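In response to reviewer comment 3 from the previous cycle, which asked for concrete evidence that the modeling workflow produces usable outputs, we include below a single protein chain processed end to end. The sequence was submitted unchanged, and the resulting structure tokens are shown without manual editing.
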Amino acid sequence: EDLLKLDHADLAQRMGGRLCVIGNLPYSITTDALLSLVASPGALRYAVVMIQKEAAERVVAPPGSKDYSPLSVMLQTFARPRMLYSVPPTAFYPKPKVTSAIVELDFPAPSDLPQ
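The workflow returned the following structure tokens.
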């Protein structure tokens, strides 16, 4: 099913618990895909995704840094993001023009979410 159309809360309820998401997100929809993960607070436990490194740096950017953005604020409000490591273009065939990164998003329990 299309990640952008998926109702995470409904799926979590049908699966009987919070979800774990693992994937290589299409770089052209990275922001929308990440925002879809936080659209249903409490539905996810964690996510591990590969995204373009430039986007990963925005996701984990601390307040006041040059990479801090609305995406940083949204994701850091509902999850604890951490960049695990970079993936060089040479890891792929055909080789892309960008470096990728693996990002972990740890979603707090529903009771720990901001009200």
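The chain has a mean pLDDT of 93. We consider this sufficient to address the reviewer's concern, and the full set will be provided in the supplementary archive.
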